[in-house]
Amino acid sequence: MFRKLILVLWIISCNTFADDGSRLWLKYDLLKDTQQRESYIALTKYISFTHDSPIVATAANELQLGFEGLLGKKVSFLRNISGKTGGIVLEVNSDGASVQNLADDGFAINHLKGNIVISAKTPSGVLYGAFELLRNIQTGKNISKIAITNNPKVKIRMLNHWDNANGTVERGYAGSSMWKWTELPFRIDPRYIQYARANASIGINATSINNVNASSRFLTPEYLEKIKAVADVLRPYGISVFISVNFASPRTLGGLKTSDPLDPEVRKWWNDKTKEIHEYIHDFGGFLVKANSEGQPGPQDYGRTHADGANMLAEAMRPFKGIVIWRAFVYKADPNGDRFKEGYDQFKPLDGTFDPKVIVQVKNGPIDFMPREPFHPMFGAFPKTTLGMEFQITQEYLGQSTHLTYLAPMFKECLDSDTYAQGKGSTVARVIDGSLESHQNSLMAGVANTGSDVNWTAHPFNQANWYAFGRLAWDYNLSSEQIAAEWIAMTLTKNKTAQDKINTLMMQSLPVYISYTYPLGTAHMMGEGHHYGPEPWLAKSGRPDWTSVYYHRADSVGLGFDRTGKVSNALSLYKPEVRKQWGNADECDLNYLLWFHHVPWTKKLSTGRTLWDELCFRYYDGVEQVRKMQTNWESLKNEIDTETFENVQGRLKIQEKEALWWRDACVLYFITYAKMPIPAPLVPPARSLDEVKKLVEIYHLR
Ligand code: BDP
């Protein structure tokens, strides 16, 4: 009996493959369904390509790797396939019928003369087509009649790494930097290749490798040599490299007296530096610049404008293909102002003055990557400037690495918002893809969440946010559910019931997170500096707009920031249709209510509850929902790899504890203004406000 038990346990342990998550969604494990496998095998007898390009070779190698894993057979490369059928053909073709409707990175996959042909105008298009075919197989689709024509909506689909030369990552929650600066250029960490594969598989074609709070060190010959080594690895995957630059580099690195963008010597310095960079990286993507923002140097230090600064760099880039990405994330410390308006106000007079090589990169919302923000009022208001989108994939304000928060619905909420710039249907997405205002170039950037952790993103579900960002940059019309479904099938389980359960869990996760952190349109109440956990009472900081009270404006009357005119007229930055949508507290979507209105605690909302009761209800409900998420996850135990299951299980426990922390902190703090009881049947927190305030010290956050 005992021996039998040991045998059973041994068999079970052999079948439970410990998955450390390092392979992301490119697992390529053998498909268990034999019939399905056979059907794919019949269509993938060989891989044929003639185009002599490293990127096409990457596509062919990836298909070979994928087929070997998924189908359990090594598929060989063939050049001459005359008369042969049942294989995969990769074709770069600049003028054939199959590519007529394709953009540069687009691809078509069709059955032609007995083969599955992936055709594109460029090698990169073939690579994206190869990954699409693999995704079809990974997710169990029938490819016997495959017919796809697919173009990316946005041209530059980019990750922004906030990685520092010393190996730390600003707002990174998955270990240290994945770039090993001390080892480069001599040792190439194999993870760079895995990183390139993962990005290419979701259509990402650009990466800026260092923090926007940039060190000039990245422009030294020593570092250019290191960056070149990274660029050489990423190039065959269709990914170009950008560098974040420090605007003061001519002075700090070049030894000049100034970094004034109108100074001829400064201009020469940038021209020479840009040429020098191209000697290392001939296809350099360009510069990313954070200037005159949060203490960073910039053109305003010399009485010049953002356009003066950006255009100077564009001029240096003129002989080359590269571009200049200039961030619009700027705000000054004005206790009587409204940070909401800063980017708009500083940039509005400059619309139409930027060089065509400049893209102005705007965060999705006007404050700072809050879990829910109204779309940035710059979108739709800058017809003469190419605006790019900046999303934050790393979850600085969205639970860092301990909360399960699926971000696709947040990205989409912004992209689907209607600016009404040119009437109904002028969505943010159409501003970004250039179609609304006829811009040639387009950009969507995401602040990366990758780090040195073995599974790249610490929380296994944070991988889904990287995946979703890439998929949406490619096609913002994909639904959040579909993207989640792809990721789950490729990453977590092939069991359909389990897939559906996980999909529901992911789709609920953002509203749940918002319930116990920032319900009803509240924002910016996180712990000072580290941004971890709640600190709604924060009233003093380095700047007024780094406190919490600046944003929530709680007083004895009510809660929220009146932006309809009394305190700030920020709402007037939007088109009349948008103003109408948010301008009346009785009609405003509750999710945005306190972004625009100071609402009395006693006011009855559309839910039938008073503001105070609704606030309490949402905080409490958020915690309950996390508990339900835990129970739902427990029910998946037998369907998920043990290591991943336990990893998520542990993090959900932390999430519950922290949801309670947020709930108690916010409810106990706001009750001091509302002076109303916590409505029954909700049970008042067991701890006092003072006890909750001490948690910041107990958790060693300060
Ligand atoms: C803020 C981050 C800060 C970044 C800044 C930025 O807290 O670390 O440097 O954004 O985007 O949200 O520049």
From TrEMBL:
Residues 457-680 form the Glycosyl hydrolase family 67 C-terminal domain. InterPro entries: A-glucoronidase_C_sf, GH, Glyco_hydro_67_aGlcAse, Glyco_hydro_67_aGlcAse_N, Glyco_hydro_67_C, Glyco_hydro_67_cat, Hex-like_dom2. Its EC number is 3.2.1.131. SUPFAM superfamilies: (Trans)glycosidases, beta-N-acetylhexosaminidase-like domain. Residues 137-456 form the Glycosyl hydrolase family 67 catalytic domain. Gene3D superfamilies: Alpha-glucuronidase, C-terminal domain, Chitobiase/beta-hexosaminidase domain 2-like, Glycosidases. It comes from the Bacteria. It holds the Pfam family Glyco_hydro_67N. Keywords: Carbohydrate metabolism, Glycosidase, Hydrolase, Polysaccharide degradation, Xylan degradation. It catalyses: Hydrolysis of (1->2)-alpha-D-(4-O-methyl)glucuronosyl links in the main chain of hardwood xylans. The active site is at E294, D368, E396. GO terms for biological process: xylan catabolic process. GO terms for cellular component: extracellular region. GO terms for molecular function: alpha-glucuronidase activity; xylan alpha-1,2-glucuronosidase activity. Residues 24-133 form the Alpha glucuronidase N-terminal domain. Belongs to the glycosyl hydrolase 67 family. Homodimer. This is Xylan alpha-1,2-glucuronidase.
